[in-house]
Amino acid sequence: MTETILNWVIALFMLSSGIFTLLAAVGILRLPDLMTRMHASTKAGALGVALMMIAAMLHFNDLVVMAKALAVIMFILITAPIAAHAIGRAGYFVGVPIWVNTVKDELFNRYDSDTHRLRSGLETEEELKAMKTSNKDKPRIRVTTKK
Predict the structure, then answer these.
(1) Prediction pTM value
(2) Which of 5, 37, 58, 125 has the greatest count of CB atoms below 10 A from its CB?
């Protein structure tokens, strides 16, 4: 009896995993811009993988498999948001267009493309002058184009 219940729980976790993974794929295909696509793929994809690993832990019922599945879950939950943030930020700074119905763009007029610096908006006039006259405003990444 308990084995049948366990199989149903495993099936529920796998079905939920498939649904969230499918939602992530549909979000990547249907959402209008990079930022919303990154959000869909990160949130739904990470939850789908986590549910799949929980189902694997329950199915195999082995300490080694459980440890590996927990390690995979932790790895996905730590790296997916960081990678999405880095890709989204790079896309924004490169100039990937955002959706026309975006309500608020908090980075607008805060990124200096010449120096590759992002201002917080809380700098005083003295700090802005010091940034312009110091060596810190030189680009850290030099982009060259082929001629």
Answers:
(1) 0.76
(2) 37
